[in-house]
What does this fold into?
Amino acid sequence: MKNLQKLAAVLMAVMVVLCGALLLTHEVSAATEGKISGTVKYEGTPPHMRGIDMSKDPYCAKANASTSPHMENVAVGSGGGLENVVLYISEGLSGPALSQPATNVPVFDQKNCEYTPHVLAMDVGQTFKVTTSDQTAHNIHPNPNPMTGNIPWNQSQPPGAPPVEKSWKAPEMIEVKCNIHPWMHGWFAVVKGPYATTDANGNYTISNVPPGNYTVTAWQETLGTQTAKVTVAGGAPAKADFTFKGK
Amino acid sequence: MRITLHKSLLCMAAVVMVFPLASLAQQTKADFDARIGMESHIANVTGHAKNAQYDYRRYCVGCHGDRGDGMGENFPWVDPKPRDFQLGIFKCRSTPTGTLPTDQDLSDTIGRGLDRSNMPPWNIFTEQQKADLVAWVKHFSPRFATEKPGTPIQIPSEPEVTADRIKAGREVFSRVQCWKCHGVTGEANGPSASTLQDDLGRPIAAFNFTEGSRPKCGSSDQDLYRIFMTGLDGTPMPSFADNIKPDEAWDLVFYLRTLMSEPSKEKAIAKQLGLKPVDTNAPAQPSGQQ
It folds into this structure.
């Protein structure tokens, strides 16, 4: 009889744990619905973006014959929207949203002797791919600080080269260069957790954010960072707009 | 009173937050002391960091500095700049780009020196002294305490030099566009040569094959093979391991010999063939991937 009671107690305990686990998983799957969205604007006269002389490589010059290539350090759209700003959650994240890297594979292409996109955001540990669409040789040379755990490397990508697949170990804004074409300059923005990059109009949406209170950071390569507090609940996306003022 | 408390709390929070960053950037003597037990293993010789202190002080510290960061008292006067051992990034490796060199690689660099720099060949050292110095060099970087060296690239045995292989090597030189920096004749006058910078943003020259200099990471056929397959980390020279197959790599080594000023079998064959420099206006030849 006593044994039976013990068994019942154990069974009850197991059921409580199972129910708890079930409830928790339910909560997590509902949680992935949360979003943070907004617009990043530039206030003031956009700085002049220096033109690029590609004449040293006839392939590059020809590929850009009908456009006028220029630097992309500050890319302001017609409505004042700021492109290539990386938005990420700098405080308040915990659990799987933080510990499980995203599984999609973002692509950094070398096209017409420029980087597309100019800024590639990614999660720590997320695999990304570097491709080349060009019929001229590039070398892809990110230069992180090895003390962070991110180790610099330098690989050639001649015409028709296979993609290079890599990932980074720590959050860091990493400059990328091509030594063959010194004007080529881009960024790997490595952050922890969900992220987004603004489009040509300055709009962004960070998806897969569990409900909670967060600090969102907006990073722009030359204008620096700004932060905002947001609360994500079920339903409509939380809003966070940013304005960077011209210097 | 309350404000002061808040301030001191804020201050403490700031210190706590900044401390790890500071320690990332600046290693202290305590960090180095914690790694004084560092060893190296080269063939059957074991090197001990602590045994290299005298040699380092006498021969190395003037350039490489007592913190191993390349900021010795000669720093302003030497170019290329002395290596920063704390970063663990080295030009001459048998291991893939982005990985630590082996102990043997570091010992070879000490013995060989780096041509066209202030680093002479240290042929006064015994194997034991070099092994001790390798361990000492490693103790400056936290990376050697936590990371393993890369797996050395495999170099297949060297085939016989033939006219066909030299011609094939010329095709590789053209396809992967070595000439972008090194020039079609190997004179380091390619279209990108004048704008090359190292990882510190300092001007750096591509290797000139034609003036009789020794390549920085060795001048044997195996050394040449290794140089373009691993790349020279910290410089513009990338790794070509993903884009040159092992057999083609030997072809390229043979073609590079034809550009060098030293007499060689390859040079004689190239002369017989009447081999011309590659034509950079010829349409690019993709390596069959697209």
Notes: Residues 140 and 277 of chain B are 45 Å apart (CA to CA). Chain B touches chain A through 42 residues (CB under 8 Å). The radius of gyration of chain B is 23 Å.
